[in-house]
Design goal:
The complex is a heterodimer of chains A (159) and B (373). With 159 residues, chain A is α+β, with helices and mostly antiparallel strands. In chain A, 38% of the residues lie in helices and 27% in strands. Chain A has five helices and eight strands, in the order H-H-H-E-E-E-E-E-E-E-E-H-H. In chain A, the strands form two sheets. Chain A has a four-stranded antiparallel sheet with strand order 1-8-3-6. Chain B is mostly helical and 373 residues long. The two termini of chain B are 42 Å apart. Classes of the chains: A alpha+beta (159), B mainly alpha (373).
């Protein structure tokens, strides 16, 4: 039973995958190892719900393997919002606060996800401010891009 | 949008209180393990900021834990090596000192009662001073000789298990995060986020409580040492620190600490009872500072327990597990409260249960795919 506890979860293969993730792409290998030490790895089966719309968000999810569907609650067919593959992430606003999730996330196929918990991100801000600020900047840029995209959509629909 | 989970109800609260009582009874049976574990937690939460600074400076968690724990164990070993010969060399003198302090305390009590008898006829009529003297003499006669053996035996029994504490603290520092992930892996996906939140809240509660306890001890010790120095007492810092540590046992510890200082005052100033009365006044003042300023600044905000419940549970803890119960009841209640409230929300959430059942169905269907037909 304790073999799993003693085993080091972090592997070079996972570090390489994480290096390709947008919010971690500015990190040096040594810094990536520190972030990797904070991540939890979970396996989901096709059709399994990862989180629900309206649920209190506690963590950001990074797709390591497989595909994930982001959709309106209980409406995976007509309520599709996005499909995410390896190297992409979702649930990013949960790193900032515990506001309710804006959509539902489901595994489209068997997938492995790395989970970055908000409390661990906050402790990273205390212990490794330089790493956390680089992650925060990347996250802010990503959220800004999404906001500009939504603005363009709204303006396009209005004209 | 799904509504947020409701707050814990009376059933959960009854469960929390019942679990706290049960844990106290169990802890009483395995006190030899609970005490070093608790001491290890105090050391862990005391050393964690230092280890955090080293990690911030660029060391790995393992190296930081090695450096901080190694330095602490080395300092402890040096302190014990220096202290032990002095303690053993002065053992006989200590025995005499205990008797001297007890005699001085009895003298102070007699002196106080005699002066009260002189003022109040009722006390003179019942011969209060004589009857109290007879009872106290029975208790204090050869107190040190009678209890020295028990004290030494107790020390010999407890020392090996107490020496476990720094080693446990080292493993908490080095493997704490890994253990958290290990626990997380055992939790089904549907409950995972909530469980991580629970573990974080547990850590936050314990961290606030033990760091608060250390800060409170420093504040108490400083206030008492200043007051005792102002009264002209000998060794004010040692006495302040001793009484602040004794105050870890709610109520009983403070009274015991006050008694120790009054005995020392009575022995140091046998002809000036005003000093002994001054130490009692100082204790009441520090107690009030504690209740109104120090406690809310340190421990008070960490556990978020209603004051009435705290007081009732302290009595329950004392009744169930004696002095150990008094000491353990608040941190155990704090932890049981966080676990109970979160488990209550997780277990009573029909959506999480449904998601878990759905995942299990999917997994068993996938496992049986090639078995059909």
């Amino acid at each position: 039973m304790f073999a799993g506890f003693m085993r080091q979860a972090e592997t070079p293969r996972r570090w390489r995958r994480l290096a390709g993730v947008r919010i971690f792409c500015d990190l040096k290998p040594r810094e990536l190892r520190i972030v990797d030490g904070l991540l939890h790895e979970r396996g989901y089966i096709a059709g399994e719900v990862i989180f629900d719309e309206g649920e209190e968000g506690q963590a950001l999810y990074i797709v390591l393997e497989g595909r994930v569907l982001i959709c309106r609650q209980g409406d995976p067919e007509s309520g599709r919002i996005a499909e995410l593959g390896a190297g992409e992430f979702f649930g990013d606003l949960a790193l900032l606060d515990d506001a309710p999730r804006a959509a539902q996330a489901r595994a489209l196929e068997a997938c492995r996800l790395a989970v970055f918990f908000r409390a661990d991100f906050m402790s990273l801000l205390d212990t490794h401010a330089a790493i956390a600020s680089r992650v925060s900047l990347r996250l802010a840029r990503y959220i800004g891009e999404r906001l500009r995209g939504m603005n363009r959509k709204v303006l396009g629909a209005a004209t | 949008m799904r509504p947020r989970a409701a707050h814990a109800g009376p059933v959960v609260w009854m469960g929390v209180i019942a679990a706290t009582c049960l844990l106290l009874v169990v802890f009483r049976a395995v006190l030899w393990l609970v005490v070093p574990f608790l001491a290890a937690l105090v050391i862990y939460y005391g050393l964690r900021p230092l280890a955090g600074r080293l990690v911030y400076a660029g060391l790995s968690i393992e190296t930081a834990a090695n450096v901080v724990s190694g330095t602490f164990i080395l300092a402890l070993a040096v302190a014990l090596t220096l202290l032990f010969p002095r303690l053993t060399a002065n053992a006989v003198q200590w025995q005499e000192s205990v008797n001297r302090y007890l005699d001085a305390g009895t003298g102070l009590l007699e002196q106080t009662l005699s002066s009260l008898e002189a003022r109040y006829a009722v006390l003179q009529k019942v011969q209060a001073a004589a009857s109290v003297r007879a009872q106290v003499e029975g208790l204090t006669d050869d107190f040190a000789q009678r209890h020295a053996g028990e004290f030494v035996m107790g020390l010999v029994t407890w020392l090996p298990s107490l020496l476990l504490a720094p080693f446990l603290a080292f493993f908490f520092l080095r493997d704490g995060r890994r253990f958290k992930r290990f626990l997380g892996r055992a939790v089904p996906n549907a409950y995972f986020e909530r469980t991580l939140y629970l573990l974080h809240e547990l850590d936050r509660t314990a961290h606030s409580y033990f760091q608060g306890l250390l800060k409170l001890t420093v504040l108490d010790a400083a206030a008492l040492a200043l007051g005792l120095a102002a009264l002209g007492m000998s060794a004010p810092v040692t006495l302040g620190l001793l009484t602040a540590v004794l105050a870890w046992v709610p109520y009983v510890g403070s009274i015991l600490g006050c008694a120790v200082v009054v005995l020392v005052a009575a022995a140091d100033f046998p002809n000036d009872p005003a000093i002994a009365y001054g130490t009692v006044a100082l204790f009441i003042l520090v107690r009030m500072l504690d209740d109104f300023f120090f406690m809310p600044m340190t421990i008070g905000r960490s556990l978020r327990i209603h004051p009435m419940l705290s007081v009732v549970m302290i009595f329950v803890g004392g009744a169930l597990a004696g002095v150990a119960g008094l000491m353990l009841v608040l941190p155990v209640l704090g932890v049981a409260m966080v676990v109970g409230e979160t488990l209550g929300r997780v277990v009573t959430d029909p959506r999480l249960r449904a998601r878990h059942a759905h995942a299990r169905r999917l997994r068993s269907r996938q496992a049986a795919l090639d078995l059909a037909g």
